Amino acid sequence: MLTLRRRAAGQANEPDSEAVAGSDTGSGIGTAVPASAQEYSSLVGAFPRVNLIPDTIAAEAKARRAKMVVVGATIAAAAVIGSLYTMAAGEVDNAQQQLDSALAQSQVLASQTLQFADIPKVQMDVDNAKTQQYQAMGGEVLWSSLLNDLSLTMPAGTALTEFKASVDGIAPVAASASATSTDGTVSPATPATNAPKTLSVLGNPGIGIITYAGEARTYADVAAFLDSLGKQKTLLDPYPNSAQLNPGSSVGVSTGRVDVAGTGLTFSTTVTISANALSHRYDLNAGKK
Questions:
Q1: CB atoms < 10 A from the CB of 8, how many?
Q2: Is-above-0.85 flag for pTM?
Q3: Stretch 180-208: mean pLDDT, rounded?
């Protein structure tokens, strides 16, 4: 068996001088084999290649490859859709659990609100009671404070023998508290429409009058008494009703003899009570519960 070497173009292949082991020398016919794989590939490349596969078979093979690609893409899309569906199902379950919990809590709260169903009615009753209390006691005057101020401001040389006072019994400025109706709505506070019934000698509104009767040594002492009344914040516009000599006055000027009464004055004075004398213990706080 001889090895053929390929020469350059235009040259014929010449046999190798070396014989290959195992060649058949007895037959007298030599068969040429390549000496290496590179020489074999070079030798094969020199021959033309012929495609014996029919076009229909090639087309079917191409179609099968396309189907496999489509099937693979479909399987991948199905996997993605399945994952998304699983996630969505989990979120739906969580939302349903939250909804069930909220519904259960709302039922508990609804059952608890039944315990306070009477609160609006009770609150309305309380507001009505406060309104009635104000109508009865809204004109309360702290006489203790007023008399204490009088005792601290009485000038020397005067003494009281009579004290008469009257009040209207209704505060000049009042408002009814906002009331809660049975349906739960709150009505706004309504201002009072009562106008002051008492006016001072100068036309200032008041809530009542006080009449003083007493004794004084001189007319100047009567004037000092009126001046002390005018300085009090709870009184308005004092004025004298009468002032006359009274030899039997116990605060008059004495001669030094115990058996002779002093000579002095008796007087009568009227003053208007202002709203500052109110106690405000029963006032209505509109809008406050």
A1: 5
A2: no
A3: 63
